[in-house]
Amino acid sequence: MDTSSFHKFPQLPTELRLQIWEAACSHVLTTTYYCGLQYVDIYHRQAIVPKQVSFEKQNRSAYMLDSGLWKACKESKEVIAKHTYLNKNVVIREQSLDELAQSTRRTKRSGRPSEKYTADWLKPQALARECPVLIRSREDEECFLFVHPDVDVFCIKVDNWLALQHDELPWPSIELSVRRRPYKVYPPNIVTKIALLYDPSWATDLPNPLYNLPYEDSARGYLAYLIQQRVADAVRFGRKELYIIDKEAKWFPIIYKEAEWLWTPPLYFQRQVLYWDCDAEYVEVKWFQVAPRYNGSDRVDAAGFIHKLDTLVRRMHEATYVYGPKVPCLWVSGNDDPLTTTIKLLVRRDNQVKHTNLDCQPTCHRIGWCVCSEEERACMESARE
């Protein structure tokens, strides 16, 4: 390579440098059907950006995708600020706070409840979003990390899981720790979509009966506590949702033939909302779409854990109420829905697999899904014809 024709980046023309910074910006932030998957630590019941422990264990949250551009140089910071509408978001947030303060004062004078103010931000028609907020970091205050509290999923991690349990609260009151200006009254930004990262150890040594599981200082114990709270009075939760993230799960797509639809398929089957972090894209699937994953004779995937938990719950429920109509207890809801209707599942989009058929290799039938290449499948279909 001729080094005489190579120019250092600072020596490039300004227009070319700005084009390079623009190309480096992520365009996922402005995509209609994309929502972020954010990994946060819980500190004093507030969600905050976790510390950087080591190079191997980096924070892979969606808000970190453009974090390097905030610290590269002054030019990159100006470009990413323009790309993320930083100034416009700050102005709209300030306007919303002023209107909220005025509405609060009017409420105190008139005694009538005030309407909730929704910031007039860029709202795509298919997925309306409120104005994003700037989440605080424990160690780096130079980055402006944006999150959408109304649509993003927050995967929480905490040292003491029992500290999050308060029976007097209808829903775990986890608030986003956002950047604040002095002399401003900020409304709480409560996390509405909570996620737990699944670990195969959840499926081992489940207590039977399950009375003590919600009091276990672990992620699965906290999950059991959330199920109790959700089933106890589902009306109080509103649109709050609970997710489990299984990054290793293989899943089958739902195939609908056109003849089976007497009307237009629902929007859910036309175009799914994609969740993303710095590593992959995630989709919400039904529990029956998951391909079983075994460790010996034990099923270790998230769907198997929920099925096992649901079986133990129903067994305990039948032992409690043997005669008469079923009465809702701490685990089973009034209409006797399984736990799979209470908890949602997120899986990696690239882990989609195909069903096996009679022409598949023995390996496919052994693992439970087809691993044949496209050429092999084409040869099988032609040989069948």
TrEMBL record:
The 2EXR domain covers 6-85
Source organism, top-level taxon = Eukaryota
InterPro entries, per the entry? 2EXR (IPR045518)
Protein name (record)? 2EXR domain-containing protein
